Amino acid sequence: MPDLSAIVKAYDIRGVVGEQLDAAVTRALGAAFAKLVGGPSVVIGHDMRDSSPELSAAFAEGVTSQGVDVVSIGLASTDMLYFASGKLQLPGAMFTASHNPAKYNGIKLCRAGAAPVGQDSGLAEIRDWAQQGVPPVDGRHGSVSEQNMLADYAAYLRELVDLSGIRPLKVAVDAGNGMGGYTVPEVFAGLPIEVVPMYFELDGNFPNHEANPLDPANLVDLQRRVVEVGADAGLAFDGDADRCFVVDADGNPVSPSAVTALVATRELAKDPGGTIIHNLITSRCVPEIVEEHGGKPVRTRVGHSFIKQRMAETGAIFGGEHSAHYYFRDFWRADTGMLAAMHVLAALGEQDKPLAELTAEFCRYEASGEINSTVADQAASTEAVRAAYAGRDGVTFDELDGLTVDLGDGRWFNLRASNTEPLLRLNVEAPDAGAVAALRDEVLAIVRR
Prior knowledge:
Blueprint: E1 13-16, H1 23-37, E2 41-46, H2 52-64, E3 69-75, H3 78-88, E4 92-95, E5 104-111, E6 115-116, H4 123-132, E7 144-146, H5 150-160, E8 169-174, H6 180-188, E9 193-198, H7 220-229, E10 233-237, E11 244-248, E12 253-254, H8 256-270, E13 275-279, H9 285-292, E14 296-300, H10 304-314, E15 318-320, E16 326-328, E17 334-335, H11 337-349, H12 355-360, E18 366-367, E19 371-374, H13 378-390, E20 396-398, E21 403-406, E22 412-417, E23 423-430, H14 433-447
Parallel strand pairs: 2-3, 2-4, 3-7, 8-9, 8-10, 13-14, 13-15
Antiparallel strand pairs: 1-5, 4-5, 5-6, 10-11, 11-12, 15-16, 16-17, 18-23, 19-23, 20-21, 21-22, 22-23
Protein name: Phosphomannomutase
Cofactor: Mg(2+)
Keywords: Isomerase, Magnesium, Metal-binding, Phosphoprotein
């Protein structure tokens, strides 16, 4: 058994197939997961990567070796696995490496009701038990049954957001050869939405571009197609289709912060006074707009386990991140890019304005996006930045997640260390693009010197 600490991350398991992750490893992880959750059953889904069927089958062998049954839902997006976990009230395992290149695969784990399993909530124990080996239990071997959840998943989403009465829309969708190519046709079938499909063929080798729409280079094809076909909007999904990015009719990306604010207003209209979670890198417009619509904004650290924990603690109705993860109380507090996209299309189709005009009210500030810098000493570089701003009037600091510096005049930035690489991640926001560029360059000069 290789050293599993190399592939067991803070929130999931991810590694290079054949080197770090193979059938023997996933079989051991399956047995350990079954030991953690205890049964009676575990639901398993997988993405379109070449290695996913074999690895998920081996994981199922590990689960059944502990006398625990398996419900296999086969091909699935990550949010479909969360749906299955919630609907069936079973712990779940999703085989995917999300947007990572083809040589990778991984596992996202959850307890019944899509409750997350991370390092502090069971993943460390799974790692240690799998490393040692979990012997089969005596007396009972679990069984494997198959259940296709696609139609139920689509029907459930359509109950949450009714698109049947909107004006006709043309929507270009870039699935990036990922699981969006499997889920979008079912979810949008029969609705007044003309889908212009891009890269819907399931192919875990990602022949057209990386399935990572957070990288602007991977949005270029969609931006061009939206303008070419005269679409009302464009949607780009990542590899496991749990994140969705939005493009307006002019081919311009709509920031995830604007999507967060838009969806928040719609959820608050249904549930006045509700709590909305946002991570500390989303635009300051998010808490402003939430308060203006009678809601209660709650700021949290970056990362799905923190968002879901705060949602559970506060009873929040919705949560959004700068990385285009969107969480819904009505979806077991799990993240689903599809449901967020449906909210955007509903808002667009319920009135006559173009998307750019509709979202303009949710775009109050300019932002840099995330900028990575390779540094030898993350702590020393961060401290140098703190020292540079410490003596200035009106400047405040907080350390909820990394270092956030608020200059008191509408300008602020966050500097966070990567958990897995020698990187510092910088995000800057200011009232205008010139102020963003100036502050960005000022901070980077300190970080990179």
